[in-house]
Design brief:
mainly alpha
Length: about 2050
């Protein structure tokens, strides 16, 4: 048992790995229990067992393994980390469990596999199981199949991928093992259950017996669609929902939904593609042309056999298709026609979408062949055309089908209609848009009136199918004129139709039909359009696609929802029957009279035709009253208008009567249900009167009312035809004027442009000038809506007229069409109309292009021409191409049918003669423009080959190909290109040119699309291979395109696609994906669509450009009105708008116009940081050149592409300078509104501006400088600080411009340099400007020298870099310059320095030639200013005094009008960065000069004092600054700028922005890691630690609680902080600088972090906590031992006092104390015991023994006792000497306690009596021999003499003197120099002041006496911690006291509290408790504040003077302090 007991004691994990099986069994059991207990799936406990799970399942002992499997199952089910183990565990299960004899083991193994699938690891599990199928052990194979079967049965075919299983099935059926075959059969049955017959083709070749058995099993299966019985974790909510549905009886519906989802497997997908082209008989093409039909038959039979393969490999089938087509079309043997049709069917079925490109060629041929009557031929043709239809879209073949519809042969008509009906069945509401439905319905309506009954029936069936698919609402408008009988027939057919997509489509439509869609009354057309389309969409799939499948017209944006074209009656709320009401039957005059008399007074009717006009007038008045009172429903409109038309009708001669009449017509139209029939009665009369001077306006009013009732499109058409059928020119011109106006009021929607254009042309040819003018005005209005393409119709007008038209268009340019005000209200209330008109603008778009007469050129493409193009002789080929170009040129606009031309041209694209390739490309470009959007159908057969040309090795050919592709894409949009595999096939080719061009093209196009076809994913594998291509350009292009692919496909899909890569590649690609994820742009908003798809000549409706900005910038509001005011308010300034409006003539500019909206700078998160990283890592060129080379410009362009609006970038990089000016103007306009964007792209903007500095054009330069001034003003307001990268890539180039010959420019550059000092430290600017003095340009040298002078004047000597000496020497060289201006500038600069620093200058500038020196001396004499009496030494040691006059002069020079104080604050906070820490104590520094020189003038200046915001806690004694005082910034010594930089970086550590903080920490870490640099941190440690724990606090309280923040970010920040601290605490000298208060807070922060449970939950949380542990140990070991011990005691005290504090917290603090106790024996000598004992004393005071005993835990009391005991043990009786700091020792429990301990220890040793112990120390000391004393003193003096320990020595000497007041130290001082003696005396005095004056300056009156003590800092600790080694520190209390007295004398005493006099302060010693870091925040974080706010805090108390890094620096000399004393004396005497 001995053995047993050993392992029983082991922890679980060790037991589990024990070699004894019993131990393992016990371990597994315990693990199982642990797993069952852990409730939280994210508990960190799980991670501990990660490595164990594989062992659990693969244990060698069967019994133990069973238990292991149980535990593993529980683990996988509950642990969130289990997924990480999938691969290894499942492979373990497969190899070690499935072969076990025990059934239980196998069951558990299968369960584990299924559980992994449930936790979303299906793919990995399936992979392992499929590998298992190759195992030699049949047991394992069987188990794997069984597992797969169960998984499929439970999870369904969506989760378990069937393709790989089906692939291996035939192999399993051939297995020798019966068990395997049986299991294979079972899984085949299971698969069949899910995908039904899709499984048959892959299994067709297995053993027939097995197949028969399978068939039998399959028949038995239930027919219902299977449902998964088990769900993934993420789907388990769905499961719950399903259950609810079933319980609520909603089973049917739920089932329906699901049924839809499950059979998504397509047999086709499961098949292997077969390559057949190579297998064609060699002589196939000859045979197919053979004269003998048998030979042709053989050829076709050979093809038929090949195409029976269900899936064919993609390839070039053009020739084969052409041959088959020829047989179908031309062969006389009908049997062969049928055979060829079968072959085509096979090809279409086998190729699917890949056959689409040939569909256009074959469809017309097949349709025309339907003239054959033989049923077998007809059937074969039907099958062929149906199969072909599935490979393309109705849209693509619509042209061909419609062309055949007009054929005279009834069979062709019948079969075509039937084909249309069958095709419609495959459509959904969204794939059958109105634009497509309209032409089909029109053609079918002709057929329903055909003489042949079969044609009529077929047409009825087609219309019925359409009705079923899209619903009545969409079809009814087209059926307006169909009589009731036929309508019923159509409906009857519709009911019989079975749709391919189930009945959903129809249902949806009908459901919606019955109730109008609410809430859509006033949406804009675009919204309405989308809504109505989507209403009847059956599934979410098509829904998404709705917008993209629209016909050619351009997308609509802000199009008004104007009434639909077919016009529906203007009823308010009519739904279904409304369409019928449009055609109101004409009533006879008798009926009308009858109806009218019912509603009109009898007299009225009688007087209508009275011959007396007055009676007629009276009659009209009554008529009007009656109409006004009538109700809409009762008003017989037709009857009333007929009454009005009754004699004299419209020939009325009296104008008053006529006016009334017209007014009544308007009233009736507005108030009644006014039909087109009524309108036709009156319109003629109205048009006749429109030109009448008196009645014209009334006529127009009536016409407008009618237009509102009957829709403008119809009314306008009627009115126009009436006007132009009569001769009166006045009527014609007024009609045109009315129409211009009406279009503005109603909008352009639905107007028949074609009809107008012919009328307008008539008008333009009129002799009457008024008519011509009106026509031109109307054209202007149309131009607003139609755009530049309108001009095409009038190109053949006379030049004079054309110039008038152009002038009118010019006027309209840049204007946006007004929002429609009429025609909306009435119609958009009824949901029905909206749908119709929603699509209407579509038709406008296509309409405009379609109006152009398109020429049919197919007859000109003769076979001779085609053979010419493919001739062997290149000259003949060229001739052929020339001919084609000629044909296209001549035709201008052509129809899509171009015969054999595509194949011929395609052949020329790979012509060996590159000139011909280029010519072909040009022809294709022409073709795109000529054919317009219809070119779509040629994308597959001609467009893709153009892309292949992108791989050409010649640059110019590639460029031509790219231009062609773009021209095509502009017409077709991108969808056609991205659909199918063609594009991915191109990308697959390993041609570097092709790849880079294609990727570049995609990168340009993808970002503009709102959605893309799913086939885009096919390109991803090839994109990944491009990322690793050998060619650098390909890699770069691939990286550029990556974010845009991700934008459409999403990160997940892209990451998933990496699964198939090699592991090494995968990691690289994933890293790139991460990077791309950060730069991924957002998908473009609605408006962007327009820019991506501008249709050929269809020029999207003209007002898109201006409505887009509105929509874009407001984005959330869909605004139908592009209100210019609003656009302006949104930041698109009028200037920018006018710029947009200027260029319209070309298509491209229109595209630009559309985009000029939204932000010009796109904020890319981390973009700038990434660019800096790239530059640092040398991935891109460093911005450094003498003149910018092309690669720099290209690089900048690339970098800008992701974050600058495309159109702006085009302007910025245009070759013409005017575009640069435009770009700058836009940038100025957007500066305020896009601050974030500007700052995000600042590096790029500055780089671009540097390029502008190299331009020769002055206007650009002036504009750029203007922009820079505004930019830097903005940056300083935003408190932005330039990064090094930004500065170094910009400042040198700006400095070049300071030497410009033009005065204005130099002035601007200087102004910019001045402003830059607010965002970039002057000290860093200095070297750049210094570099500028080396220029060859003398003007530049002079200006730079002057600027240096200004810098020194404003900011003091600290700006001189690298040291003042070196800088001044360089400046002095220029005194000998040959240019006078340079000499002067150099002299002036040195004089400036002299004015600040006196004679010190001569030392610094070194030796000069006599001539130069004499010039300098002369200049100094002449300079009127005397240098202030600043002591010379100050230059070396201290920062300059704040210069008053000089710097003020500089400030005034910058802008006298500005308020000085605010300027100062700004200057200080911006350029000085936080400098509070370095400025010499302000109590002295700022003002002594002033007081000294002014002798009392201060009093006069009192009203102008700057009012400081005094803090509530400390009321520091401050001399207020007179307002005119300028401030020199910071810095403690000549290396000031490092200090300032460190302060600034430290200030960023506490930033609320994680990235800023991380960057700052990284910079500090770099400093700390380099030994030579680490020293720079000295003096900043407290400040850094405070910033750090503030950040820790921020994370704890804010970031961790923020759901939106990525927790990875926080972990990253934690690791930076902890890493930094560890680096810091490894450097002992720095670690010792941390003061007690700060350490206390730091420990508090770290312990809180260790206890933060939220961290443990994070993935890397454990790691963080381990690191914190390590850090705490470092802090304990390396800090100043006194400080850390003291801090821990105070922390323990606080934590025990705080009720909220957790016991865990106190426990950890005590653990730290115990560790300290362990370290005591080594550290006791370095500890200041007095302070520690004082802390213990305070602790015991707060927690007396009784109170401690009441604590729940006895730890605190034990900790304290242990600590004291250790101290006693180490120090012995001497310990009692260290109670000096405790006030009344006799009250202290501590002393008694110590005595007891001493006594106890003495008793134990039995050597001393109690009494001795008590007095021990003094006695021993008395006895200590004289010799010993001398040694001791000698030791002390040695320390004082040494540089390092001088302070310690003085302190010891002071202690010694205090203890032995009679001791004689004279002999030791005698031998030393006078200086040393005074040094020692002064040092002792300082210490005395410090010790005596501790805690003296009382806090502000708000604090009670007790707290006063506790918030007073302990200056001793802080002073020592700052690491000032000079002993001359003078206690601040003395000076403060003196200054206070001075203030009182000057009447400046603003202290609120009465202070006790100095003497009383000095006499009673106060307790110096620990300065908590919160008390130190004033000092330590003054920097932080300064960089955050624009205030300077001058409220420093004495503590601050110590603790901020501003104390005199290490090498400060005594002269400074003496100097201060002298000054004070002088001040005193002068005041007396």
């Amino acid at each position: 048992m001995g053995d047993d007991s050993e392992w029983m004691k082991l922890p679980v994990d060790q037991k589990c790995e024990h070699k004894l099986w019993k131990a393992r069994l016990s371990g597994y059991e315990e693990a199982l229990k642990i797993f069952q207990k852990i409730k939280d799936e994210k508990s960190p406990e799980w991670s501990k067992f990660l490595g164990l799970i594989k062992k659990l399942v693969t244990d060698s002992n069967a019994v133990v393994q069973l238990k292991g499997l149980e535990a593993a199952l529980v683990y996988v089910e509950n642990a969130h980390v289990a997924g990480k183990t999938t691969g290894e565990v499942v492979s373990g299960v497969v190899s070690k469990v499935f072969n076990q004899p025990k059934a239980k083991a196998k069951e558990l193994g299968i369960e584990i596999c299924l559980m992994y699938i449930e936790i979303e690891k299906g793919e990995a599990v399936q992979e392992e199981l499929l590998k298992g199928l190759d195992n030699k052990n049949p047991k394992i194979v069987v188990a794997c199949i069984e597992t797969l079967r169960k998984a499929l049965s439970e999870f369904g075919s969506k989760i378990i991928l069937l393709k790989p299983i089906i692939k291996v099935l035939p192999k399993l059926f051939e297995s020798r093992e019966k068990a395997v075959r049986d299991e294979a059969k079972l899984i085949a049955v299971e698969i069949y259950r899910w995908i039904r017959d899709a499984l048959r083709p892959p299994l067709q070749n297995i053993n027939s017996v097995q197949l028969k058995e399978l068939e039998e099993e399959w028949v038995k299966l239930p027919t219902g669609a299977p449902k998964p019985s088990r769900f993934l974790r993420s789907q388990q909510e769905l499961e719950a929902k399903l259950e609810q549905q079933q319980s609520a009886g909603g089973d049917a519906e739920g089932g329906g939904d699901d049924g839809d989802e499950v059979p998504q497997i397509d047999a086709y997908e499961l098949l292997e593609a077969v390559e057949i082209l190579s297998k064609l008989p060699k002589d196939f093409y000859d045979k197919i042309e053979a004269k003998k039909w048998q030979e042709r038959k053989e050829a076709l039979e050979a093809v038929e056999v090949l195409v029976k393969n269900p899936k064919l490999e993609a390839g070039d089938y053009a020739d084969l298709v052409k041959a088959l087509k020829k047989v179908v079309g031309k062969d006389t043997n009908v049997m062969l026609v049928a055979l060829a049709a079968k072959c085509l069917t096979g090809l279409a079925v086998g190729l699917r979408k890949k056959f689409g490109q040939y569909a256009g060629h074959v469809v017309p041929t097949i349709l025309e062949k339907f003239k054959e009557k033989k049923p077998q031929v007809v059937q074969a043709l039907q099958e062929a055309i149906d199969a072909i239809f599935l490979t393309t879209t109705l849209q693509n073949i619509s042209e061909d089908v419609l062309a055949v519809m007009d054929n005279k042969n009834p069979t062709i008509k019948q079969q075509t209609s039937l084909f249309i009906a069958r095709s419609f069945r495959h459509c959904t509401a969204s794939t059958l848009p109105k634009s497509l439905l309209k032409p089909f319905c029109a053609a079918l309506l002709k057929h329903i009136n055909d003489s042949a009954p079969e044609v009529r029936d077929a047409a009825f069936e087609a219309l019925g199918t359409a009705l079923k698919v899209v619903g009545e609402k969409a079809v009814n408008p087209f059926l307006a004129d169909v009589d009731k009988l036929k309508l019923d027939k159509i409906k009857e057919c519709s009911e019989k139709v079975e749709l391919v997509h189930g009945k959903k489509a129809g249902l949806a439509a009908d459901k919606k039909e019955s109730k109008p869609v609410p809430g859509r009354t006033a949406t804009s057309g675009a919204a309405g359009d989308k809504d109505t389309k989507d209403i009847s969409a059956p599934k979410p799939g098509p829904l998404k696609k709705a917008p993209t499948t629209k016909a050619g017209g351009p997308p609509k944006k802000g199009k008004p929802a104007a009434p639909g074209s077919t016009g529906s009656a203007g009823t308010k709320n009519k739904k279904g029957p409304e369409t019928k009401e449009i055609v109101e039957p004409e009533l006879s005059i008798e009926v009308c009279e009858e109806k009218a008399s019912a509603v009109l007074p009898a007299t009225c009717i009688q007087l209508l035709d009275s011959s007396n006009w007055k009676e007629r007038l009276a009659c009209m008045e009554e008529f009007q009253k009656a109409v006004e009172l009538m109700d809409r429903t009762e008003m017989p409109c037709q009857a009333l208008v007929r009454m009005l038309a009754k004699k004299p009708g419209w020939k009325e001669t009296n104008f008053q009567v006529m006016q009334m009449k017209l007014h009544i017509v308007a009233l009736i139209a507005q108030k009644g249900n006014f039909s087109k029939t009524s309108a036709q009665i009156v319109l003629d009369g109205l048009v006749d009167k429109i030109g009448d001077v008196k009645c014209g306006n009334n006529a127009k009013e009536a016409m407008t009312a009618i237009a509102e009732a009957c829709m403008l499109p119809w009314t306008a058409e009627q009115v126009m035809s009436m006007a132009f059928s009569q001769k009166n020119p006045k009527n014609q011109s007024e009609t045109l004027n009315w129409l211009s106006n009406a279009i503005k009021e109603f909008g352009f929607s639905g107007l028949n442009v074609k009809a107008f254009i012919s009328n307008v042309k008539t008008a333009l040819a009129a002799t009457n000038p008024a008519v011509r003018t009106s026509a031109i005005t109307l054209l202007g209005v149309m131009y607003l809506y139609v755009g530049p393409s309108l001009r095409m119709f009038f190109e053949d007008e006379k030049p004079a007229l054309l110039s008038q038209i152009d002038a009118e268009f010019e006027k309209m340019q840049g204007q946006s069409p007004p929002a429609p005000t009429r025609g909306i209200s009435k119609h958009s209330i009824s949901g029905t109309d909206e749908g119709e008109d929603g699509d209407e603008p579509d038709e406008v778009g296509t309409d405009v292009v379609d109006l152009l007469p398109r020429t049919e050129i197919s007859d000109k493409i003769t076979s001779e021409l085609v053979s010419k193009i493919s001739d062997k002789n290149w000259k003949i080929r060229k001739e052929g191409l020339d001919e084609v170009a000629g044909i296209i040129n001549e035709a201008k606009f052509i129809q899509p049918n171009i015969g054999e031309l595509p194949t011929a041209l395609k052949g020329r694209l790979n012509d060996s003669n590159k000139i011909l390739v280029q010519q072909t490309l040009n022809i294709l470009q022409q073709l795109a423009v000529a054919m317009g959007p219809n070119i779509k159908q040629h994308v597959k057969n001609l467009g893709i080959p153009i892309i292949t040309v992108l791989g050409d090795s010649k640059n110019n050919v590639r460029a031509a190909a790219l231009a062609t592709v773009n021209a095509w894409a502009e017409q077709t949009g991108m969808k056609e290109w991205l659909e199918g595999e063609d594009l991915s096939e191109e990308l697959k080719k390993e041609n570097p040119f092709l790849r880079q061009e294609l990727l570049g093209w995609l990168a340009e196009k993808l970002p503009t699309l709102r959605s893309t076809p799913t086939d885009l994913i096919l390109c991803v594998p090839h994109l990944y291979s491009c990322l690793e291509d050998r060619n650098g350009d390909v890699r770069k292009k691939a990286q550029d395109a990556l974010p845009f692919f991700m934008m459409h496909l999403g990160y997940e899909k892209m990451a998933k696609a990496t699964g198939k890569l090699k592991p090494t590649s995968k990691d690289q690609v994933l890293a790139m994906l991460e990077k791309a994820k950060a730069n991924m742009p957002a998908k473009p908003a609605a408006s962007a669509k327009a820019s991506s798809k501008p249709m050929g000549g269809s020029a999207p409706a003209k007002f898109q450009p201006s409505s887009a900005p509105v929509e874009d910038s407001v984005s959330s509001t869909v605004e139908p009105k592009p209100d210019p005011k609003k656009a302006k308010a949104l930041g698109v300034s009028s200037k920018a708008k006018s710029a947009q409006g200027k260029k319209v003539p070309s298509k491209t500019s229109l595209k630009e116009d559309e985009d000029k909206s939204g932000p010009i700078f796109i904020v890319v998160p981390n973009g700038k940081e990434q660019r800096m990283k790239d530059e640092k890592g040398l991935k891109v060129l460093k911005w450094n050149f003498t003149t910018p080379r092309d690669e720099y410009i290209e690089q900048l362009k690339t970098q800008m592409s992701s974050c600058v609006a495309k159109w702006l970038q085009d302007e910025m990089f245009h070759s013409d300078f005017q575009h640069h000016n435009k770009a700058l103007a836009v940038m100025v306009d957007h500066l305020e509104s896009e601050k974030e964007g500007v700052i995000g792209c600042l590096d790029l903007i500055l780089k671009w501006l540097t390029l502008r500095f190299f331009d020769t054009n002055t206007s650009v330069l002036m504009k750029a400088l203007e922009y820079l001034k505004l930019l830097f003003t903005l940056l300083s307001e935003e408190e932005y600080h330039l990064t090094e990268n930004e500065a170094s890539s910009f400042i040198p180039y700006l400095i070049l411009k300071v030497g410009e010959p033009k005065d204005v420019i130099r002035k601007d550059v200087r102004a910019i340099l001045n402003r830059m000092c607010l965002v970039y430290p002057a000290s860093k600017m200095f070297p750049f400007i210094m570099e500028g003095t080396k220029s060859k340009n003398s003007k530049q040298r002079a200006e730079c020298l002057e600027e240096l002078g200004c810098l020194v004047e404003s900011y003091g000597m600290n700006v001189c870099q690298p040291t003042p000496g070196k800088a001044l020497k360089e400046i002095a060289i220029h005194i000998g310059d040959r240019d006078n201006a340079v000499r002067n500038a150099a002299l002036n600069t040195i004089v400036t320095v002299y004015n600040v620093h006196g004679d010190q200058v001569f030392k610094l500038i070194g030796t000069l030639s006599e001539k130069d020196m004499s010039m300098l001396e002369e200049r100094i004499k002449r300079s009127a200013k005397r240098p202030s009496a600043a002591p010379v030494k100050q230059v070396e040691e201290k920062p300059p005094r704040m210069q008053s006059i000089n710097s003020n002069a500089n400030m005034l020079r910058k802008g006298p009008a500005e308020d000085m104080s605010s300027k100062l604050n700004q200057a200080r906070s911006m350029s000085g960065h936080p400098e509070a820490a370095q400025i010499v104590r302000r109590e002295f520094q700022l003002d002594l000069d002033e007081i000294e020189n002014d002798n009392g003038t201060v009093r006069c200046e009192m009203p102008e004092l700057v009012q400081h915001k005094l803090d509530d806690i400390f009321e520091p004694v401050l001399i207020p600054e007179p307002k005119i005082r300028a401030v020199s910034p910071h810095f403690d010594d000549m290396h000031s700028n490092t200090a300032s930089t460190i302060n600034f970086i430290i200030s960023q550590v506490a930033s609320g922005d994680i990235n800023t903080s991380i960057q700052a920490l990284t910079q500090i870490d770099e400093v700390l890691r380099q030994e030579d640099k680490a020293e720079a941190m000295s003096g900043h440690i407290d400040q850094f630690l405070i910033a750090t724990f503030m950040q820790l606090r921020l994370i704890y309280n804010t970031h961790m609680a923020d759901e939106k923040l990525e927790k990875d970010e926080i972990i990253k920040l934690y690791s930076c902080i902890i890493g930094n601290m560890i680096s810091l605490f490894q450097i002992e000298s720095l670690a010792r600088e941390a003061s007690t208060g700060v350490l206390k807070d730091l420990m508090h922060g770290l312990i809180t972090l260790m206890l933060d449970s939220r961290i443990e939950d994070l993935e890397e949380g454990q790691q963080v906590i381990r690191s914190v542990n390590l850090l705490v140990v470092k802090v304990l070991e390396k800090s100043d031992q006194t400080n850390i011990l003291s801090a821990l005691l105070v922390l323990l005290q606080d934590s025990l006092l705080a009720t909220a504090s957790s016991p865990k917290f106190s426990e950890l603090v005590m653990k730290c104390l115990w560790r300290m106790v362990r370290l005591l024996p080594d550290t006791i000598n370095s500890i200041n015991l007095d302070r520690i004992l004082l802390d213990i004393h305070i602790f015991m005071k707060v927690f007396p023994k009784e109170k401690l005993k009441q604590c729940k835990s006895e730890f605190p009391i034990r900790t304290l006792k242990t600590l004291l005991h250790t101290l006693c043990k180490l120090k012995g009786p001497k310990i009692l000497d260290h109670l000096t700091m405790i006030d009344n020792k006799n009250e202290s429990e501590l002393e008694a306690h110590l005595c007891r301990m001493m006594k106890h220890s003495m008793d134990q040793t039995g050597s001393k009596s109690d009494k001795e112990t008590e007095k021990g120390a003094s006695r021993i000391d008395e006895k200590s021999s004289k010799a010993k004393v001398n040694d001791f003193l000698a030791e002390i003096f040695k320390k004082i003499g040494s540089k390092e320990n001088t302070k310690e020595g003085l302190a010891e000497l002071y202690e010694y003197k205090k203890k032995y007041s009679d001791a004689d130290i004279e002999p030791f001082l005698k031998n030393s120099s006078q200086f040393f003696q005074s040094y020692v005396e002064r040092g002792l005095r300082v210490i005395e002041m410090e010790r005596e004056g501790k805690g003296r300056i009382p806090a502000s009156t708000g604090i009670s006496p007790q707290t006063e003590v506790s918030c007073m800092p302990a200056p001793t600790s802080t002073v020592s911690s700052i690491g000032n080694t000079n002993g001359e520190e003078v206690g601040p209390s003395v000076y403060l006291e003196r200054l206070k007295i001075l203030r009182q004398r000057c009447g400046l005493d603003n202290t609120k509290d009465e202070r006790p006099p100095l003497t009383s302060l000095l006499s009673k010693p106060a307790v110096p408790p620990v300065a908590s870091s919160t008390d130190m925040l004033h000092s330590k974080l003054s920097q932080l504040r300064e960089s955050r706010e624009q205030h300077q805090h001058s409220d420093l108390d004495s503590n601050q003077t110590h603790s901020s890094g501003s104390v005199t620096t290490s090498s400060s000399s005594t002269a400074n302090i003496d100097d201060l004393k002298k000054r004070l004396e002088r001040i005193k005497s002068s005041r007396k």
